[in-house]
Model the fold of this input.
Amino acid sequence: MSLNLDVISTSGKKAGKVGLPEALFGADVNIALIHQVVVAQLAAARQGTASTKTRGEVSGGGIKPWRQKGTGRARQGSRRAPQWAGGGTVFGPQPRSYAQRTNKKMIAAALRSALSDRFADGKVFVLDSLVDSEVPSTKKALEALSTVGDYRTALVVLHRDDDVAWLSLRNVVNVHALAVDQLNVYDVVNNEVVVFTKPALEEYIARSAAKVEGIVLEYEAPEADDAPAEVTEVEEAPAEKPAKAKKAAKADKAEVEDESAAEVAEVDEAPAEKPAKAKKAAKAEVVEEPAAEESVPETAVADEADAEEAPAKPAKAPRAAKAAKKEGEK
Done:
């Protein structure tokens, strides 16, 4: 949803309408948050260079003013003690930083609240331009600002490239010119009206759109609506090429992997056949050896059996001799 606001020309006539995003100019006003951010901003602007000297830093005071006893006066040890004129300062200010830590989201929310409060009071205006010519003119700039009505102080938000407007407003006391990227809560609250130039408003909304979703600047002219559509088409067209390239690369990788796998399988199968043939040849030799043993004649087998039994007979002789000795002893 957008909030409609008239665009005023330098002559004071309506030059069209602009739809302001509700997220920026129609947000809920948080007074406590605005106060916290303004206090932090003013505190950060302090120099923090105030410095005082203690009794140890003040020159002099090295001798005891008078003796400890016998004078009737109070005992003193130095002329630079804090109770003496020209003495040191106790707990005086020292150089330090007064900056407060504030979250970026809090600062942005406070700025939206301040602008929304000004818009609700009818204190936000949009000018087509301040000076029509290319020559700076303070008189023309003040005439253009007079079209927004009476005001005590005015905050004029300009684009950094608008050099003519910057030079035209540099000597005006009750007008504070500010760049769009320096827009802050304190300046919005401290001035009675807030005036945007058309280029400055476009840049501010474009900057805010990158942080907050749903922010769009709307004009009645159809040319402003057609421009973003062409940009989106141009951005989407090259986005398809990388996807196709990735698919083609994946297909090529898959084919290369299949070919390499097939080659590896062929290499593995080729040497696998040779061991199988070797095993079959070994089995054939094992089978043929028993056949050769069977062909040996039976007489040769009998001779080998007699040769094996022959040495077994002398083993019985010692046993018989032992038995004869035992019978003789008996």
